TrEMBL record, chains A, B:
Species the sequence originates in: Halogeometricum borinquense (strain ATCC 700274 / DSM 11551 / JCM 10706 / KCTC 4070 / PR3)
Matching PANTHER family: PTHR38811, UPF0284 PROTEIN SLL1500
InterPro entries reported for this sequence: Nict_dMeBzImd_PRibTrfase, Nict_dMeBzImd_PRibTrfase_arc, Nict_dMeBzImd_PRibTrfase_sf
Cited SUPFAM superfamilies: Nicotinate mononucleotide:5,6-dimethylbenzimidazole phosphoribosyltransferase (CobT)
Statement: the UniProt record of this protein carries the keyword Glycosyltransferase: yes
Keywords on record: Glycosyltransferase, Transferase
Protein name per the record: UPF0284 protein Hbor_26140
Gene3D superfamilies: 3.40.50.10210
Protein origin, superkingdom: Archaea
Tagged with keyword Transmembrane: no
Amino acid sequence: MRLILVAGTTRTAEREGISAAGATRDLLLHTPSADAEILVYGEPVRAPVTPVSPSGCPTPAAVTRAARELVGFDVTIVDGGLARPSGAPTVSVGAKPGRDIGDADPVPTAPGAFAAAREFGRSLPDDELVVGETIPGGTTTAMAVFRALGEDWPTSSSLPENPVELKARVVEEAFDASEIEPGQAAHTPELAVRFVGDPVLASASGLVVGALESDTEVVLGGGTQMLAVAALARHAGALGSLTLATTSYLAADVPELSEATDAHDVELVVTDPGFDAADAGPLSAYADGVAKEGAAMGGALYLADQADALDGVTGTTLDVLERL
Amino acid sequence: MRLILVAGTTRTAEREGISAAGATRDLLLHTPSADAEILVYGEPVRAPVTPVSPSGCPTPAAVTRAARELVGFDVTIVDGGLARPSGAPTVSVGAKPGRDIGDADPVPTAPGAFAAAREFGRSLPDDELVVGETIPGGTTTAMAVFRALGEDWPTSSSLPENPVELKARVVEEAFDASEIEPGQAAHTPELAVRFVGDPVLASASGLVVGALESDTEVVLGGGTQMLAVAALARHAGALGSLTLATTSYLAADVPELSEATDAHDVELVVTDPGFDAADAGPLSAYADGVAKEGAAMGGALYLADQADALDGVTGTTLDVLERL
């Protein structure tokens, strides 16, 4: 079993109030590199920090790592536009860091990354893949991508209070600046990610399309960003078995999730890691609505549940956090 | 347990008669990328070929992969100057493909790669590492590096008949073209790899120095190229526990190996995978002196032996070959 984390950046995250994936805006750019290292090595190696939210909630990458220690799946990192060198080994698909979506052409590498990731996804020998993402600011770009595809699903937030109005203004700015209108990219998903998206959506959707084309079952581990990946894959014409495996915290935040997955012929699996328990320590922030998902956490919990190891996730995650 | 494969290229391999690591000279440049993919995925993914020697001997990467399937260790690939994109995730240390050592400055990235790999090696959390290499033509550059350090050890060959005279002529040419004389780099190993070496030796020796500096036990999995890495690390002043784990085929080819490891305070472990048995199929070429080592094979056999799984290596390698 292989879990692929697509890790990258968009400068959209640097706007005040957009993301909780880093204690400060300066550290946001390091979060995906650090998440990748935590999955691979169990701790940051080259990245100077362990990602926490401004309120101190630990990164979901620690949960994914814990599930890996319990279940033993392989991890592969795809460079979906990392801004800082990662000590984790990465597969290159030609993605570069995304600019702010208020720019006219924020992700010029998107079509190339989509194509290279598709080839890569097609050539992987695995029968089943779990695919997740780590990109601060990614729910804002996902919202814009839904609009570009002509869809209107809400996106979640790593912040306990979703800054919906701020995100809607940023999305509006993105369409004002770009060549495309809402709905205009329904048949050209590469253009949606290029003009109003981010390099992780481009790389992840290409990867998923290639995997589906070679009859690989794909489990998307994540929330509304991975839902956007499913939408992009379906708009690219990819058929085949897609599951969205997410956390109970994300599902509680987005009541429309079940309707949205149905609309894209995606099975929905929701897993509750039980971080509301008395012994969950700093993980109880998840039960309070911080972070909720990310770094393939929902997919990792799904794998832990399949292996009858869900009970061990809280304790093992706390062990991981202790070593960080 | 983590096994790190440093994978790269030197155009020295394109000289006629230097290397068996590829059926043709055109395919040589793909061999390290394919070896990395075989270790990670069990088969080539982006690389267009499965490496075999001109006589059809399968790549030692298949043996290392088999040991991984038996023992379950983690694999990390360091890009030590790959010339072709690999579908295997890689850690970048800034190494670029090496030019022919007949050039004046064949590896200008060597000092930078040495330094970045040293930082990376220092920051890895593992208590023990196995380090190996895959670079066609690497025994010729290793011979030149020994001379630059003022040492005179022989190097092995992936060919059944070691082209010693050809290699000696190439090494002489390297010193004629470069700024350094034999023995002149005894205290500056980065310059030995820069002027007469290759990017894999630069990256691997930096990695080993960094690992030793952070009290990690290092097992060098390989033959005379990994012996050159040990020499470079000792010349860089690194103390600490070093073991060279090699195959019986390599050890039989280089009777001076035990003296050479002693001279560098390196423990020598020799493992016989038993490919002379009747059921070894195409692996019997190893017993006839083809390939002998490479892609961390000796280190992987050592791990298999430690896990009491050596008996399974022949059968599992044949299974791996069937899937290639």
